[in-house]
Design a protein that fits this description.
Strand content: 15-25%
Largest sheet: 6 strands, mixed
Shape: globular
Structural class: alpha/beta
Order of helices and strands: HEHEEHEEHHHHHEEHHEEHEEH
Radius of gyration: 19 Å
Number of domains: 2
CATH topology of the largest domain: inorganic pyrophosphatase (n-terminal core)
Distance between the termini: 44 Å
Helix content: 25-40%
Strand order of the largest sheet: 6-7-8-9-11-10
Length: 318
């Protein structure tokens, strides 16, 4: 059942013993949502904790500030920024059919929860969670504001992506009125690079492949390449192929559990959500992903054929 902001707020105010689910391979938005809502619920005297199939990057450790480690048996399951229950990873089998409330912003959202609040016109799920928190009449703290700001900043590429709206800037501005170091957050997320990240970038660039008359670029990250690198450093590589002049679609293939996770980014003409949906995935107009089975060459062939077909339809490839 689809619900609105007020109905979501009422649901959260009436329930207790929350387990908040983030999607696997977590990014700043799903973590920002989860930690902000967890903090609000605990502040209201409720029991709340977060679960994710994959470990959070230590780069986001500041989000834990002010949260209590609580042990209890959850009775209310909420998912945030999870477009499809399959994106819960290993948690899908346990909780996928038990989600009572889902808040999301993906165009490709597949309904799986009892109650669903989805707004694909928002740049980040944290924008929606911010509105829900305001509707709840809860007190946003400095720590919660930092979490929400992080989600908005990461899903807009520090407000550079085309999904950024005037509403995005308005909410970010309201959050910046709180006392947290947004400058440090932006440096850590967008400018700071570890030596391991630089080494990973070098290997990715040296092995980059081009297709469709150089309008498509692909990089591969094998498990061996990623083993000693922070998850957020690996996620950051996804933007690399699209940064090259003339490239319309950038693809990053990451090896995980014998499969290949494809992340696609486009400039202005190609709907990568449409491409990824044909491969069982989804996402946004300019940023989407999917999972491809098989060996590396099979995965490459699958994604390149899908991208090439769409670019031909648009007259961008022969």
């Amino acid at each position: 059942m689809k619900i609105d902001i007020k109905q979501a707020a009422d649901f959260l105010l009436k329930k207790d013993n929350f387990l908040i689910l983030s999607h696997a391979n977590p990014d700043g938005d799903t973590m920002g949502c989860s930690h902000a809502l967890c903090g609000i619920l605990q502040q209201l005297g409720k029991k709340a904790k977060i679960a994710c199939a994959d470990q959070f990057s230590e780069r986001f450790a500041y989000m834990k500030k002010g949260l209590e480690a609580q042990e209890f048996e959850p009775t209310t399951i909420v998912s945030l920024d999870v477009a499809d229950r399959r994106l819960l990873g290993s948690l899908n089998e346990v909780y996928g059919d038990r989600v009572q409330l889902c808040i999301d912003h993906h165009l490709s959202h597949v309904e799986y929860a009892e109650k669903t609040l989805v707004d694909p016109d928002t740049a980040a799920c944290c924008e929606i969670v911010y509105k829900v928190i305001c509707e709840m009449g809860a007190n946003i703290t400095n720590e919660i504001a930092a979490c929400l700001y992080t989600g908005i900043a990461t899903d807009t590429g520090c407000f550079k992506f085309s999904n950024t709206t005037s509403q995005t800037h308005f909410i970010a501005a309201k959050l910046m009125e709180f006392d947290f170091d947004f400058g440090s957050i932006n440096y850590t997320l967008f400018d700071m690079k570890t030596k391991a990240r630089l080494s990973l970038e070098e290997r990715a660039i040296n092995n980059m492949e081009f297709f469709c008359g150089d309008k498509c670029a692909l990089v591969v990250l094998t498990k061996q390449m990623m083993d000693s690198v922070d998850i957020e450093d690996c996620n950051g590589i996804s933007a690399l192929p699209r940064q090259i002049e003339g490239v319309e679609v950038g693809i990053t293939l990451k090896e995980k559990n014998g499969e290949w996770k494809a992340s696609m980014r486009s400039a202005s003409k190609v709907d990568v959500q449409k491409i990824c949906s044909t491969l069982g995935g989804g996402g946004h107009l300019r940023a989407a992903g999917c999972t491809v089975k098989g060996d590396l060459e099979t995965a490459k062939k699958t994604v390149i054929e899908a991208v090439t077909a769409e670019m031909k339809n648009l007259g961008l490839a022969e």
